[in-house]
Amino acid sequence: MIIVMKAGAAKKDRDLVLKRIRELGYKPHVIHGETRDVIGAIGDERGKAVLQSLESLHGVENVVPILQPYKLASKEVKKEPSLVRISDNVVIGGRQLVVMAGPCSVESEKQIIDSAVAVKKGGAQVLRGGAFKPRTSPYSFQGLEEDGLKLLAKARELTGLPFVTEVINPETAELVASYADILQIGARNSQNFALLKKVGQLGKPVLLKRGMSMTIQEFLMSAEYIMSEGNQSVILCERGIRTFETATRNTLDLSAIPVLKEKTHLPVMIDPSHGTGNHHYVAPMCYASVAAGADGLIIEVHPDPEHASSDGPQSLKPAKFDIMMEKLKLFAEAAGKTLI
Amino acid sequence: MIIVMKAGAAKKDRDLVLKRIRELGYKPHVIHGETRDVIGAIGDERGKAVLQSLESLHGVENVVPILQPYKLASKEVKKEPSLVRISDNVVIGGRQLVVMAGPCSVESEKQIIDSAVAVKKGGAQVLRGGAFKPRTSPYSFQGLEEDGLKLLAKARELTGLPFVTEVINPETAELVASYADILQIGARNSQNFALLKKVGQLGKPVLLKRGMSMTIQEFLMSAEYIMSEGNQSVILCERGIRTFETATRNTLDLSAIPVLKEKTHLPVMIDPSHGTGNHHYVAPMCYASVAAGADGLIIEVHPDPEHASSDGPQSLKPAKFDIMMEKLKLFAEAAGKTLI
Amino acid sequence: MIIVMKAGAAKKDRDLVLKRIRELGYKPHVIHGETRDVIGAIGDERGKAVLQSLESLHGVENVVPILQPYKLASKEVKKEPSLVRISDNVVIGGRQLVVMAGPCSVESEKQIIDSAVAVKKGGAQVLRGGAFKPRTSPYSFQGLEEDGLKLLAKARELTGLPFVTEVINPETAELVASYADILQIGARNSQNFALLKKVGQLGKPVLLKRGMSMTIQEFLMSAEYIMSEGNQSVILCERGIRTFETATRNTLDLSAIPVLKEKTHLPVMIDPSHGTGNHHYVAPMCYASVAAGADGLIIEVHPDPEHASSDGPQSLKPAKFDIMMEKLKLFAEAAGKTLI
Amino acid sequence: MIIVMKAGAAKKDRDLVLKRIRELGYKPHVIHGETRDVIGAIGDERGKAVLQSLESLHGVENVVPILQPYKLASKEVKKEPSLVRISDNVVIGGRQLVVMAGPCSVESEKQIIDSAVAVKKGGAQVLRGGAFKPRTSPYSFQGLEEDGLKLLAKARELTGLPFVTEVINPETAELVASYADILQIGARNSQNFALLKKVGQLGKPVLLKRGMSMTIQEFLMSAEYIMSEGNQSVILCERGIRTFETATRNTLDLSAIPVLKEKTHLPVMIDPSHGTGNHHYVAPMCYASVAAGADGLIIEVHPDPEHASSDGPQSLKPAKFDIMMEKLKLFAEAAGKTLI
Among B165, B178, C186, C313, which residue is least crowded by beta carbons within 10 Å? Predict the structure, then answer.
């Protein structure tokens, strides 16, 4: 932390700042500038947030953090990329480009099995599908709940594809974990810290989506919540942030890929379906994600989008998914990844 | 919903749209424009979100919603303002301007009792204080939990002030409700639908904060979640939205007051402490909120902000709170409100 | 500037940073932290932006600016508020609350004269009206240009009200200045530096609108452009920033008032018409602006909004303007301002 | 336009709306809904903005535009992609992937010639370099002006590379056009309509950058300004939009590529240097842009970034540029483009 004093602040104000820094367990170091003093606080980086309260002191202009507050998620702590093992065939974060695909919601046995068969044929290695759905409106379809989980398990049995599904409540998290291969934390729950702690205590890999107005730093702090409970198998997923633009449902922030790759060892996936909200834009954003260095993609595919209970407009039909996957191979190869 | 066809869309595409609208239970009505057709779908407004899936059909340019999807929260359903009764002396939504004040977190018995005595003296009618704290970092102070609730109850006993405190987990919601007078849903949980449903089932008034990147419409949908579970005592609270500006912690959206007053019968409060993140800006924003028609304010006051465990820089000292409250009376009067 | 080195950066990397700081004319000062070094650069604050290029050097984590880059606009240079004199009766920045009102565009002699008479009767001290219009579409009405300026001058002659009008091109700036009392720089030209320099060279007061995605710091840098050319008569005007919210045309950032009052001596006005885009929300935002400490308001008033060439939906009718102005007096009084 | 009436609006209110629609030259068409009426206005699409003023009428809930207001830029008018010819060897918008590269500012003869030689060697087909610089601070380097143009011309003579440079003022636009091969309109001038009209009248191709908070629709309206003056050679360039995220200088919106490709026939380029503000992130964003379908890239390359007068931290060194260009070929090939 850097404490910037006001121009012309009194000596007694500065002395009080120095005293408080020492009280909080840090060592102050003063730089005398031309018009003002600047004070560095030296010591353990993790607890430095408490120094922010010095901003209340008289004579202090502001307190500038210079370091990131996460540790377990940081590349400074672990330099080599983390590999998250989902099954014998699926490992995220290495050379393998992992594609998760399927419908937004599980709607019926036929729908989820048709979807699983179709996405497997197209080359997906993981099935996605929602059983507990966080919907903006209480009047929208809320998911099949445990019945949906059972149908996902049936689809897995039939196709061999592991599945990812969302967990929305600490009270039902263990139930979901007893079925699913990967637990998804959705964008709206990305700072639901009670839920993050809960999935940190369960043994399953977690796909953590970035919140709609979450900075990269906050994103890594949410990963840190899960990791600090003992679960290191965290996969980060960018899914579009909220901006002023309305031509797309969200603004897919692909620069998050190199930024995250610089700051963390955790694998990074992209969700171009929620990121754009429009099936026309999904394929180009898949190619771009892989070119930028993504470790995987999660894509909405529905056998009959115009009858979907949710997110129809952003779902690919299986035929379009197949064409996209064919072309994706070229980009994966250029990026040094393998799409098995 | 208005379904806009592409310029030059084929008749068979249009006919399929008409068929699907009828299948979904709505009556289509076509307007033939100069370059394209536009189709209205007539019927019950609440379920119209399903029509969005028609955007997947061939020949459809886009689907434009023209109506708000909330009902219980809407002024169309209930024209007169709702009054939320907290105690014999405190009613939110009428002529009384209600001020809630206190520290961000409960830290100790002395701290919360000093705070309660101070804010009561200054004119606050409700005490605020966090016992379960949603913190961005797992390494930051997480609150005193049930011990904090007990201290708040002790402060209430001593001063007669009812208190508001945050609930962050469905698993502990009943515990919190057994102590608190008002349950707060924080910004980060504003679309934690499991939690919204839970507090909708408990009998206590709910102070619902707007999420950091939540539209007014989504805000009212979250209120609708609580109300659709049977709890009509919802107080809306604007606390700043996330924008590009960094001079303030958030951007306090005061135009939300007249917008909400136009759309809903629920009372509207403002949190200028989180809204600005800087105690220097709190007083002017309190005056502005009341002038714009707010029903109440929730303000961070701490007897010793430079030693606060959280949010020190945005907390007022009691002496500054007193001065602000004195001047606030003038603006309350001009706005036709009474600050008892 | 604070240069933050990477954890474990080599000594030779640090030495190169020190060398470059000295080459650029600053004095380096190293703080040895627990995991990394942090280097302060001491010297004249205005030119420090050049130090940003050190971020390219090996071993540098990032470069953190700690000071504001404006000077003439800064309160550190001039502590007392600046008064901008428009006419014998109108001075902005002191006790007088100044209201500028009138239509978006000058459309005809009758329209502008009716408007001028109406807003004067309601209590406005300055007439507003656009002659050169910056319109998003080339097919929209572009203004009456010099004919519009002549009509504004005629309205001034008749009512005694000075007028403010927009300047959109360095090539026509002198022409506009030969008629107008105040030159307005619109939001879309707020970083049109060629235009800012031009109005800095003309003798007339400038009403500088904040850009749609302009930070407070950039806003003050644009004021600095005008002032550094010799024109100190700059009035800042917040008119709403662009955010994700669509319930209002823009998000009116009223916290800009106390933030600007803390950082600059220049007067601050608010435009609630563009800020909200809806005439229903204008009056509450006028009251809130004054309560927050604004020095003035600029409001769209049109005798016949539903026939307006531009911005009809956000224009008040004269009768509504009168009612608003009556009630505004109460808030002005509470704020210690006079509305003559 | 769709005019939505309030629930329970009076018949006389609706009749007045119908009358006004007819007066404005459109044909109204009423849909009677269950709780409210909705009115379509049929007629020429370009002038429909005037209907927005109906929102001021009593009984009107809101006015919903359903169509885009641009025409010349629209794919509905011209289906095949436009090719913009820069020289015998350089055509933008076809199979050729065009890379423009060079320093932010022209600083000296040696610097610009070294840069030109280096980027040509790396494979760039166009040289970039600023002579007139729009800088946020009046105290920053403002460019070498005409001397800079002469140096760019000298570099062109030496290397055969055509060059693009920024125009910032209608008064100097012709001067710039007398030297440059492509005129750049920067982000801060993207709604400087006087400048857009001016470059629309000059014969040179225009590289139009998207404004920092410009929607795709506004972007196309700015292109329409240039085209409506007679100049059809417009190249669109996404360069990052302003959001809440601070890990990158801007947020590069790569989904703008498929969105623009759907709506317009104009070529689309990407500026990853300004888009990210950090040279570490430039290469991955180059690959992603090409994978998403971009027609070209504009990249900052500087022989000595740590001594650059502007934008050092986001400039690539020539050696890094060469490596990037080598790898880019693989992605260009996968995307069906040729990088000559």
Answer: B178
